[in-house]
Design a protein that fits this description.
The structure holds 2 protein chains of 2 kinds. Chain A is mainly alpha-helical. Helix content of chain A is 62%, strand content 0%. In chain B, α12 packs antiparallel against α13. The chains are: A mainly alpha, B alpha/beta.
């Protein structure tokens, strides 16, 4: 993280302002993820799913992309108000000032390591600002919902899937 | 597998999917019912049975057993509010609430409890509801138990429930068996994704088909927007049709005129509709005292497979901790178990990365216990408040204060002790800072020191109650004991929003019983026939 914890907390108020400003970027309602959002979510998913995803490889990148698609689908199933909030969050994270000041990630998302993104996730997870904690919760739930909703993910947790053959 | 809904539609049931409407229309009927869950379903059955013309409005889709594939990725977006991710305004509480024909009864876990007698006593003394007691309501519960096959569940509990039973019994905490509203249940464990075998006697397969057989009309993908008030009467309801995504308005509008309007949109939707309609609310009670049974969660690792995804999700409960203090003292809690499916468990579980992955790898050996906190009785526990957010959509503020956290800590301790007593080798509260504990001694010390705060300690809810509370007088409630609005003559509220407190028990049977009574009284009034003999 490029800032110490104290500075990070101080940026909180500015972050709230930035968050409300970035809203207009995403006020358009139903839409596809932008390239910038896909890169950001790819970095988040790649860190959230460390320990689940295979070692860095083409396969890992494909699974990350698949999970980002799942996140987009999940967002589309939320209410208009929630979609707008999520759009604001994504909008904040894709702009460089948001990424650097609020998330504390200095490198562009496509270059950020699992450790860089992990530090950001951890800082939001235990942030004193409920706005950021709630945003961490949204990223957490969207990522794990998208991942474990896919039958391909079940073998690793020994879940046999729903009963088959009876119906 | 037969699909009674598909068969009924083929036989000519009147169902109109709002997303397919080509033009705006005005429709007349005797009774308009908003919502098709526990309240709307029972009301539609009884009023259509009395010979009244009934129209039902549902915001969600009509889905049935042939759609129910037991997959979370389909079921949550199709059948739940906000894809099962509805949240309080501060995101600290995740709310599971149905949004489909049958409402939450289509996706609940079938647990059936009568309203506890102590709750009726409290309502009598604090809200003047002298007409309602365990004795006076007994026949209504019995009628609905019979109709919906609420019976003791004789199949042995699944391993997840056995952990609760074994641990509690070892520690001397009384447990009981949960009655379930099922007929020929296959014990699959997928109740939360819609019953694929039509065994669950939800509104979807009982009261709503009965009403449709009698000629009632069901509109889906239709959002009730605003009641039109004319003097002391409701004259009409304006609705907006939704697109097939169930989220965005299509631009078509329907306008309903009726003799009587019944609101049964659940304890978030009902007060919000009344607020959007600016119905008289001189004492500012609308949307206040909304209760959730806030739930805290304890996850344990067992030596053997638990497979908590399989078998009846809830068959064992303990009310031991509801009985340790007066009902209005420190909050008591009911202990139950949830079913575990990959998405539900993974999204609820704390952490990310390797730590989360490690817990998920043990998925089949996990036991989870829930504590439902009995909110709304202690004077400090005033619940939440529904307000209108952007686009007039409801937002629920539910402050998690000290009175909740004090009980949450006792609940996390009790659950961990039970899990270790049942042989758990590791237990963690679902909390962002809990490291997990290898013994009861460690857990006791660790949980005592955990910071309990919103968004650190996971809190969920599947029971939304209140917001249109009933009472004996308009300064204490929104409706009377019959669910009749105090200010508008032809308006009733028939759902869990009328409860003036929470219940300390899963609410479906409380709603069925009370609504059976109130819909019967309403049917008698609207048809001019004598009121039914049972009270």
């Amino acid at each position: 993280m490029i800032f110490g914890r104290r500075q990070f907390i101080q940026t909180g108020l500015a972050g709230s302002l930035l968050l409300s400003c970035s809203g207009w970027l995403n006020a358009a309602g139903q839409r596809r993820l932008s390239d910038g959002e896909r890169e950001m979510l790819g970095a988040v998913v790649n860190a959230m799913l460390e320990g689940v995803l295979p070692q860095p490889s083409v396969q890992r990148r494909q699974l990350v992309a698949l999970t980002v698609d799942g996140v987009a689908t999940a967002v589309a199933g939320l209410s208009v108000a929630s979609q707008k909030e999520i759009g604001e969050l994504f909008g904040l994270l894709v702009i460089a000032p948001g990424r650097m000041l609020i998330a504390g990630v200095g490198k562009p998302w496509r270059e950020a390591s699992v450790a860089d993104v992990g530090e950001f996730l951890q800082s939001w997870r235990v942030s004193r600002l409920s706005l950021l904690q709630g945003a961490y919760g949204a990223l957490h739930d969207l990522t794990f919902g998208a991942w474990y909703g896919r039958p391909d993910s079940w073998e690793a947790i020994a879940y046999p899937g729903p009963p088959r053959g009876y119906f | 597998m037969d699909d009674p809904i598909k068969a009924g539609l083929a036989a000519g049931w009147k169902h109109i999917d709002g997303s397919t409407l080509a033009s705006s229309q005005t429709i007349e009927t005797d009774v308009l019912i908003v919502g098709t869950g526990a309240g709307g379903g029972v009301t539609a059955d009884l009023l259509s049975g009395a010979g009244l013309r009934v129209v039902l409005i549902e915001e969600g889709p009509l889905r049935s057993s042939s759609d129910f594939k037991m997959r979370e990725s389909d079921a949550y977006p199709e059948l739940y509010q906000e894809s099962a991710a509805r949240k309080t305004a501060d995101k600290a509480i995740n709310i599971l609430q149905g949004r489909c024909v049958g409402g939450s009864t289509t996706v609940n876990w079938t647990s059936s409890f009568r309203t506890p007698p102590a709750v009726f006593d409290f309502w009598q003394s604090r809200f003047g509801l002298r007409q309602l007691s365990a004795a006076s309501m007994s026949s209504w519960f019995a009628v609905m138990e019979h109709k919906l096959w609420v019976r003791p569940w004789d199949t042995p509990p699944n391993a997840n429930n056995r952990v609760l039973a074994a641990g509690a019994e070892k520690l001397g905490f009384e447990v009981g068996s949960i009655k379930r509203n099922v007929k020929g249940c296959w014990n699959l464990g997928y109740c939360g994704m819609g019953c694929p075998t039509n065994a669950k006697q939800s509104m979807l397969v009982t009261t709503i088909p009965a009403a449709l057989d009698r000629g009632a009309t069901l509109y889906t993908r239709l959002r009730a927007e605003r009641l039109r008030v004319d003097g002391n009467r409701v004259s009409a309801l304006d609705c907006v049709a939704l697109q097939s995504d169930g989220i965005h308005p299509s631009g078509r509008r329907l306008h309903f005129r009726a003799r009587h309007f019944v609101i049964a949109g659940g304890a978030i939707g009902s007060p919000a509709l009344l607020m959007r309609s600016s119905v008289p609310d001189p004492y500012r009670l609308l949307g206040k005292r909304t209760f959730l049974h806030p739930v805290v969660i304890s996850s344990a690792l067992m030596d053997d497979r638990v497979d908590a995804y399989a078998g009846a999700p809830q068959s064992i409960y303990s009310d031991h901790f509801l009985q340790q203090a007066p009902i209005d003292g420190p909050l008591g809690f009911k202990l139950e178990t949830p079913p575990l499916h990959p998405v539900l468990y993974a999204t609820t579980l704390q952490g990310y990365g390797e730590a989360h992955a490690r817990l998920m790898r043990e998925f089949t050996r996990v036991n989870v216990i829930l504590a439902l906190l009995r909110d709304g009785f202690n004077p400090e526990s005033r619940g939440g408040q529904v307000r209108l957010g952007s686009g007039g959509l409801p937002v629920l503020d539910y402050p998690l204060g000290d009175v909740i956290w004090e009980a949450a800590r006792r609940a996390l301790l009790a659950m961990a002790e039970i899990q270790f007593a049942a042989g758990a080798r590791w237990v963690t509260p679902v909390h962002e800072m809990a490291p997990g504990y290898a013994s009861w001694g460690e857990a006791k010390k660790g949980i005592a020191e955990l910071p309990l705060k919103p968004l650190l300690c996971r809190v969920v809810s599947a029971h939304v109650m209140g917001g249109c509370g009933m009472a004996d007088a308009p300064h204490r409630g929104v409706v009377d004991h019959r669910g009749r609005h105090f200010w508008l003559d032809n308006l009733s509220v028939h759902d869990g929003s009328v409860f003036p407190t929470s219940l300390g028990a899963n609410p479906q049977l409380s709603i069925y019983g009370l609504v059976a009574r109130n819909a019967s009284l309403l049917a008698a009034e609207l048809t001019g026939k004598p009121v039914p003999a049972i009270p």
